[in-house]
Amino acid sequence: MDRYALPHDLSGEPDRLALMSQMLDPQLFFRLRQIGVGQGWRCLEVGAGNGSVSRWLGQQVGETGSVIVSDLTPDLIRAVEAPNVEVKAIDVTSDELGSGYDLVVARALLHHLPGRTAVLGRLAEAVGEGGWLVLEEPDFHPVLATDNPELRDFWEGWLAWAASEDIDYFVGRRIAARMIALGLQDVRAWGETILYRGGSLTARYLSSTMHELHDRLLASGFISPRVWDDAMALFENEDFWSWQNSYVTTVGRRAAGRGRRGS
Ligand SMILES: C[S@@+](CC[C@H](N)C(=O)[O-])C[C@H]1O[C@@H](n2cnc3c(N)ncnc32)[C@H](O)[C@@H]1O
Fold first, then answer.
1. Does the beta carbon of 48 lie inside 6 Å of ligand 1?
2. Alpha-carbon gap, residue 125 to 129, rounded angstroms
3. For the segment 211-257, what is each residue's pLDDT rounded down to a tens digit?
4. Which of 28, 125, 242, 259 has its CA at a distance of 20 to 30 angstroms from the CA of residue 192?
5. Has keyword Methyltransferase (predicted)?
6. 109 CA distance to ligand 1 centroid (A)?
């Protein structure tokens, strides 16, 4: 198992994951609708956090479909009690994933995993004939476009710290080519960002992520106390607007063969 930077026992994690669901679910649901997710689909979600995506998937696939919602630590998966949704503990780096799914989906997971390339291969393997792999991961290029020099210092420090921890905050741009190398078809990718305002949902999400990592960030030396204070003040300043990182949604499909499903 790869080490994970933001384990669920951090005190702010349930709230941070709730903000994440609120911020990102609409974009992912739009893309899932676009590939046609619907009645009868057999789905797997890995690294599900609080399970908001699988809760919605359970409603889309109906009684004839099924959803496995999983996480390394599934303790925060809530309110997905439905006969067609099963909660499982799955370490995506090593545990059996099953096979033949119509949809395998993960959001904001691969960037954290040093073994991300191998994990992407494992996820692709789990997709059945005619099924889809849908991955949504960050690409931080927009944050460096800020006009504010203090915030640029903050993001440069943050990205240097992440690289030192083998967290890839630019992985979003790399997934489409990898899906093609793995033999998936109809590969497409879209990056979406938010122009956020201090005090907004997005600013609160960014601030809560940073506060969970405060001690490690400052101890690393990549972010000074002054740069930290300036950035946190901007995240609260309602007169301040800036770019969030983008989230890149990449979709790819396994060619349909003899039957829609594998084993
Ligand atoms: C940033 S959170 C994203 C949660 C959710 N996908 C979302 O977008 O709201 C990453 C999640 O991946 C899980 N995770 C980390 N390492 C994992 C692993 N090796 N296998 C499965 N899940 C893992 C964490 O427990 C956490 O819930």
1. yes
2. 10
3. 999 999 999 999 999 999 999 999 999 999 999 999 999 999 999 97
4. 125
5. yes
6. 5
